[in-house]
Amino acid sequence: MEDRSSKLQWRLAFWLFISLLSVAALATLWEFKLESIVLPWLGIAYDADFETAERWRFVLTSTAFAILSIMIPGWIIRKLLVSLSQSYAEIVQARRETLRLARHDELTGLHNRRVFMEQLTQALRVNQTCAAVMIIDLDKFKPINDTYGHATGDDVLCELADRLRQFRREGISVARIGGDEFAVLIAITLTQDELALLASDICAALSLPLAATPQQTSAGVSIGIALAPQDANEPDLLLKCADTAMYHSKNTARGAYRFYDPAYGEAVHARERFEREIVEAVRKEQFVPYFQPIVDLHRQVISGFEILARWQHPSRGLLMPADFIAAVERTGVMPELTEMMLRQSCRIAVNWSPELTLAINVSASMIDDLDFPDRIRRQLQEEGFPCSRLEIEITEDALIANLNNAKANLSKFRAMGISVSLDDFGTGYSGLYHLTQLSIDKIKIDRSFIALESPNKNQMVDAILAMGKSLEMQVTAEGIEKMDVAQWLTIHGCDFAQGYFFGKPVPAESVPQLFDSAALREFSDVMKEGLTIRFGGA
């Protein structure tokens, strides 16, 4: 580029010199020769005795004028040419850099996803019988990033990229295709054993202690391998197979590799289909509330109901929470499902006795949302359901997730008149501090304590009951399936109970039958007569 600019400048100087020489020659020719011919021809008087000095002065004057009239524009043109040359060089350099960034990862310098897909497409087009893809995911990158910061995280990625470069050779290329994901394309013929050995070597290299971290640690990797054409013969599908194999490795044995397993892949596809169905079911409100009675042990009457979701699946029939709750959490539609269940239940229960309450379990993400109490208030107002008749059930894990937000939201619920119950007490991480500092009105003894086969069962349950009494909290026992358990809990001061003994969850139309169930009548008669039934050796 510099040679080209220099040539342009020399060429400009040459033609400027020729121009000036031409002007001087023409001025001299005019003054000493042409003027004596042209002026008489034009009928203008010509003085042949005009002084020679005056003639040369005219030549010099006209030449100087020509020099000025040519040199100044020439100087300007030269500056423009230099500026244009520099701009052109910058444009060329920027284009080169743009092309480089379009094909390389800016942080690590490896090829990016775009180039990797081009190479994979080309490999499958040229030879479909020997291509293989490895997806490499860092197992511990997030903890490293969170602990040491993003700058150290970037250094770790660069260090691991340098280690991956060691495996590049003819027919094997590496790329960074995501945040902490790398890919290896093998476009040469390798046996499955050779691929396994290569994957093992990569695992070992990337699992070595990191130099980029202040303390000795390793990233750890999970690798998924997919082969063409047996797993797939299209670039996107082959990459998806490798990704599925990588998650298979991550979910079973981290720090290892796995080849794509069609059976596992089909299970993943089935799960994805199921999750899509869940999102659609929430949108279409295919979920319906079921109601399980909560019994006031002291009065032997039903005091309220816990709302439990059921999914009326179009082809699989009625599904229980165990069939779909985990998938609902994964898809992130738990808030929508919970609010749907509450809305439907309020419309049903608003016409029940005003003494009957509704209890609904909410997830950790909802308790963490500072707008959640306001949404519940608006929903209750729209349905005309009193706040005093609603009980929010939260798990101990929900408190630990974000204690400050949980504390703020529970205080809002209390101010609104909504009671709060700590569900599954004894199975999580809450302590006395949480119970005393948070706005909790009731604790629910987890069913595992009731079903426990241990000589110390009575003492453990009795201790929880005593703690609830000392903290002035009501206590509900879950999982009551026998008369003797209900009686023992009543005698020892438990306030409420629920379980199959008093009634299974039922649809709204079956709720009236629960108020006159044989089990409830029998329990009431036993307590009124003061009969004693043994519970676990008590």
Task: Provide a descriptive summary of the structure in words.
The protein is of the alpha/beta class and 538 residues long. Helices cover 55% and strands 15% of the residues. The strands form two sheets. Strands 6-7-9-10-11-12-13-14 form an eight-stranded mixed beta barrel, surrounded by five helices. A five-stranded mixed β-sheet has the order 2-3-1-4-5, with helices on both faces. Helix 4 packs across helix 5. The radius of gyration is 42 Å and the shape is elongated.
Query: For the CA atoms, what is the radius of gyration?
Result: 42 Å
Strand content: 15-25%
Strand order of the largest sheet: 6-7-9-10-11-12-13-14
Give the helix level as a range of percent. Answer: 55-70%
Mean pLDDT: 83
Q: Outline, from the CA principal axes?
A: elongated
Summed up, the helix count is: 20
Cα(first) to Cα(last) distance is: 98 Å
The total beta strand count reads: 14
User: How would a textbook summarize the main sheet?
Assistant: 8 strands, mixed, barrel
Flag low-confidence runs.
534-538
